[in-house]
Design goal:
The protein is an alpha+beta fold and 174 residues long. Helices cover 24% and strands 20% of the residues. The radius of gyration is 17 Å and the shape is globular.
């Protein structure tokens, strides 16, 4: 593979279980966003409240540095968390395709989930393949996929470069 797009993965139920009560308390006071699901994205007060738990920030910094090191890079400057928020996507809700402009890394932590939780879908942003005359082989390889579905478990943590398009399709179960 010449141009791989690494998605960092780890499972840390101990950490996510410690964050869960904080997130649940915040979500109790949070209504649906204009995007159609419950999120504190863009709420400066919540971001600062979450960042006041220095153990959360320290953990995110640690795993971010580990991820960047594993993919062969280093941060030019001290890492700064620009956005920190909590979200809940319920039955019949989704989060459309997006990237995180003006960021270096993005990540998601699955603090809790239901048995029929929708996957997070990562997309290959290189759109030239449909136009270059290549037809996909009947065999499925990681090299011939436009999208990859990741079905999370509680405690899963994913890190990825912020330019990677991703989405969460409609959930078929609460």
């Amino acid at each position: 593979n010449i141009f791989p797009t690494p998605i960092g993965y780890l499972s840390d139920v101990g950490f996510t279980n410690k964050v869960l009560p904080i997130a649940e308390e915040i979500l109790k006071r949070t209504g649906k966003h204009r995007w159609g699901y419950t999120t504190t994205f863009g709420d400066e007060k919540i971001r600062e409240q979450l960042k006041s738990h220095t153990w959360i920030v320290d953990y995110i910094n640690k795993i971010s540095n580990n991820y960047v090191d594993k993919i062969g890079f280093k941060f030019k400057d001290q890492i700064k968390i620009q956005s920190l928020f909590v979200s809940r996507i319920n039955n019949e809700e989704h989060h459309g395709r997006h990237t995180h402009p003006n960021a270096i890394l993005s990540g998601v932590m699955y603090l809790s989930r239901t048995p029929k939780c929708s996957p997070i879908v990562f997309e290959d942003p290189r759109s030239v393949r449909p136009f270059n005359g290549l037809l996909r082989d009947d065999k499925m390889y990681t090299t011939n996929q436009d999208m990859v579905d990741f079905y999370p478990k509680q405690g899963d943590i994913l890190l990825f470069e912020a330019w990677v398009p991703h989405q969460v399709p409609k959930i078929s179960d609460q």
